[in-house]
Design goal:
Distance between the termini: 53 Å
CATH class of the largest domain: Alpha Beta
Shape: rod-shaped
Largest sheet: 8 strands, mixed
Number of domains: 3
Number of helices: 11
CATH topology of the largest domain: D-Maltodextrin-Binding Protein, domain 2
Order of helices and strands: HHHEEHEHHEHEEEEHEHEHEEH
Strand content: 15-25%
Radius of gyration: 32 Å
Number of strands: 12
Structural class: alpha/beta
CATH architecture of the largest domain: 3-Layer(aba) Sandwich
Length: about 300
């Protein structure tokens, strides 16, 4: 029969009190129940734990050794129970969360700051990569939750939209045939040189899908790993690009690039929470997602 914490607790109290009746009273047990638990421990280890001197139990050498170690085990078990309750209540722990580049570098940081204020003993580790990498990390269980801007079509992954975003066409501020335009027809982008994020980027996937739906196949001549790099390439005259408004708003305001509307093309997209269908988010992740959904 396996050793139990209840048996150890009863034995430890008897070893300290030195009296069966008072031990039974303290633990709200019958005296035979105390005797039975101590005997079960002795049988489990195959050695006597007490000698009876008159009516007083006196620890054997084996009993004295077990009493000392039982205190350590029970203390560790109490600490484990306390820590697990704190973990379940999201009072401490580490939150590992993934995010695609636009979300990780721009939109999610206010939520992270609010979460840290509400959970000052928690640690947040934010991993940033493109949508394809985020899906792979979720599937490999590197972390339980990720926030993505690209489409995800995987039956094992639960996708929950939580916000929307909008992309815009940007062009050089001067010297380009579209620099003085405020809006264009999508056909005017046929053959135009594009700078873009790498393949696997949610921004690139959404932009190219929207243009192809309008009959335009983008001619990507330069790829870069960040939206800021793509905007700089447009500013330098490499070509045009389609990027999130939040990424280019400062560059547009400063006159480094211009934003041009493409008529009849929907450049809105959802931001989504993704996670494995069969994986339960940690208590900290649940609290974080509640804050995220609440805006």
């Amino acid at each position: 029969m396996p050793l139990t914490l209840t048996q150890l607790h009863t034995f430890a109290r008897l070893a300290e009190i030195g009296n069966f009746t008072r031990t039974a009273d303290e633990l709200a047990l019958s005296q035979p129940a105390v005797t039975q638990q101590v005997r079960a421990l002795a049988d489990h280890f195959g050695t006597p734990l007490f000698d009876m001197v008159g009516r007083r139990p006196v620890l054997t050498d084996a009993g004295a050794f077990l009493a000392q170690r039982a205190v350590d085990v029970l203390s560790a078990a109490a600490a484990l129970e306390r820590e697990m309750r704190e973990f379940a209540d999201a009072r401490f722990g580490t939150l590992d969360i993934g995010a695609t580049v636009t979300i990780g570098n721009y939109t999610v940081l206010p939520t992270v700051a609010a979460f840290r204020k509400a959970h000052p003993t928690a640690t947040v580790r934010l991993y940033v990569a493109n949508t394809v990498a985020m899906v792979a990390d979720i599937r490999s269980r590197r972390f339980g939750v990720a926030l993505v801007e690209g489409p995800v079509r995987d039956p094992k992954i639960l996708v929950e939209p939580y916000a929307t975003d909008e992309l815009t066409l940007i062009v050089p501020p001067h010297g380009h045939r579209l620099s003085d335009r405020t809006s264009i027809d999508p056909s005017e982008l046929d053959g135009e040189a594009f700078a873009a994020r790498e393949e696997g980027s949610g921004t690139r996937t959404v932009a190219e899908d929207a243009l192809r739906a309008a009959g335009v196949t983008p001619n990507v001549v330069l790829t870069l790993p960040s939206g800021e790099g793509v905007a700089r390439a447009v500013e330098a005259g490499v070509g045009v690009a389609i990027l999130p408004l939040i990424v280019v708003e400062r560059a547009v305001a400063a006159g480094r690039v211009r934003s041009v509307r493409v008529t009849g093309v929907d450049f809105t997209r959802p931001f989504s929470i993704i996670r494995l269908r069969e994986r339960t988010p940690s208590p900290l992740a649940q609290r974080f997602l509640t804050m995220l959904r609440g805006g």
